[in-house]
Design a protein that fits this description.
Length: about 140
């Protein structure tokens, strides 16, 4: 009887230890997964500007902390202008409200700020220079 009680107690303790091991790993950094997802493809959107031009916008992020910001503007089916700028990017660790935010620094000294980055499936959502955007992976 005592042997049965001891075995039952050991089984109960081992079960409790297993439940305790299901906690989140405090050393796991999900920023690595977000960086990997961000760099895994090219992200694009289309929209109409305030002056009536159709815009095709492409953002590309690379694992060496560089990227490309590409725009094509159309009036009807006619390409009006095309721009492409390279940038360097890094995570903004000081943003309290939106922890998944990045700075994109351009060579001419300007920058863009991409806040509250969320990647779900094939969509990249966030606030790019104070405008809500949804980009789709190409």
């Amino acid at each position: 009887m005592i042997k049965k009680n001891i075995l039952g107690l050991l089984f109960l303790l081992s079960t409790l230890c297993l439940f305790n091991s299901c906690e989140d790993d405090p050393y796991y950094d999900d920023r690595y997964d977000l960086t990997s997802a961000l760099c895994s493809g090219t992200w694009s959107e289309t929209y109409t500007t305030n002056n009536g031009e159709d815009c095709y916008h492409v953002l590309s992020f690379y694992s060496d902390w560089t990227g490309s910001d590409y725009y094509e503007f159309y009036r009807g089916n006619i390409l009006v202008r095309r721009t492409e700028e390279a940038f360097r990017w890094h995570w903004d660790d000081d943003n309290y409200y939106y922890p998944n935010s990045i700075y994109m620094d351009f060579p001419d000294g300007t920058y863009s700020y991409f806040e509250d980055i969320q990647i779900r499936g094939f969509q990249l959502r966030g606030i790019l220079d104070e405008i809500d955007v949804i980009l789709t992976m190409e």
